[in-house]
Design goal:
Belongs to the RutC family. InterPro entries: YjgF/YER057c/UK114. By secondary structure, the chain is α+β, with helices and mostly antiparallel strands. Helices cover 24% and strands 30% of the residues. Strands 1-2-5-3-4 form a 5-stranded mixed β-sheet, covered by helices on one side. Helix 2 links the parallel strand 3 and strand 4. The radius of gyration is 13 Å and the shape is globular.
Length: 115
């Protein structure tokens, strides 16, 4: 894994803050395919959450950064399948580029014992 000058995940006061998880594989190679890229970013996000003893079910807010705004349909479908109601709040933003050639980056805020 590449060393970064920041914490991939950090916890404070019952909250978990996860730096952007990219749509790359374990070797930082970008994952191709629209739904596959979203799933890869979600997998990297789950891995980062696990480092602070949290899971995707603890997420209360996500921010998606995508290089193609039309990925919103796939993101909505993934959100509906993955999260139960009430689903976490979400922001969806198009950007010109992402590190390592990724097409999706997801950051999150989680909270222990959220209701």
């Amino acid at each position: 894994m590449t060393a970064h000058p920041y914490s991939p995940a950090y916890q404070a006061g019952g909250f978990g803050f996860v730096s952007g998880a990219l749509s790359v594989d374990e070797n930082y190679i970008p994952v191709s395919g629209r739904a596959e890229a979203i799933e890869a970013a979600a997998t990297r996000l789950a891995e980062r959450l696990a480092t602070i003893g949290m899971s995707m079910q603890d997420i209360v807010k996500t921010t998606y950064f995508v290089t193609d705004l039309t990925l919103r349909e796939e993101a909505n479908s993934h959100y509906e399948q993955f999260f139960s109601v009430p689903r976490p709040a979400r922001t969806f933003v198009e950007v010109s580029a992402l590190p390592y050639g990724a097409t999706v980056e997801i950051e999150a805020i989680a909270h222990r014992g959220q209701e």
